[in-house]
Amino acid sequence: MKTFLLRLGAAGLVLLALSWGGWQLSRNASFQLFGGLVDRVETPLQQVALTFDDGPTPGHTEAILQQLDTLGVKATFFLVGNAMSDHPELAARIVDAGHQVGNHSKSHSRMVMMSPSTVRHELEFTDRLIRAAGFKGEIDFRPPYGKKLFVLPWVLRQRGTRTVTWDVEPESGLGKRPPAQAIVDKVLAETRSGSIILMHVMFDSRVTSLQAVPGIVEGLRGKGYQLVTVNELLQAAPATR
Ligand SMILES: [Zn+2]
Asked: Is residue 16 part of a domain?
C-alpha cells in the first residue's frame, strides 16, 4: 500500500511538472510548437516596429492616429474582431492612415483550450473585417495574452498564417499604471535592431502608454532607428528565426 501511494504521488508530481511546463510554454512569446512565429527580426537595418494591441475603441483610436500622424510614424495594429464589428469606421480609419492591421482574434479569449473549428472561426471572422476595412497586405496574427499551444499553432500553420509576438514589452513589470517616462526608458533600454515593441493604448487605463508614444518615437529616432510596420521589417530581412 505504501509503495502504491508513493507511486501515485510520483505520478502526480510528473503530471504537475508536465502541466506546469505546458503552461510556461503556452505563455512563452518566442516559442511555438508548429508554424512560423516571429518575435523579432534579424536585420542588418536599424529598423524597429511599434505595435498596438486591442480595439479599435472610440476616442482612443483617434488619439493614437493623431499622434502617429504628427510624428510621421507607420505602426502595426492588432485588432479584435468583435471591436472591429462594433466600430468598422475606426478600423477603416487605421487602414486609411497607412498603418498595418493584424488579426488579434474575434473575442480576445484565451485560445489554449479552443476546438479547431472555434479557432478557425476566430481567425476568419476577424480576417474578413480586416479586408472589409480595406487592408490589402498580408494579415499577421497575434494571439490574445500571447497564448498559443497545440490547436491554435496547428490551425495557423494549416492556414499559412504567420504569428507575430514581440520582444520588447515596456508596460510589463512596472506596476499598475507606469509613468510615461518609465515606459519610454524601458523601450529605449531594451530595443535593438529588428525589435517588435508591444504597446496598449486603446483603453482609459492605458493613458500613460499613449503619453509615452512621442518620447518612444523621438528617443528611438535619436538612436538612429527607423520605425516601420511589422511587414516592412520582415520584407527588409526575410531571414527570420
Ligand atoms: Zn490583447
From this structure: no
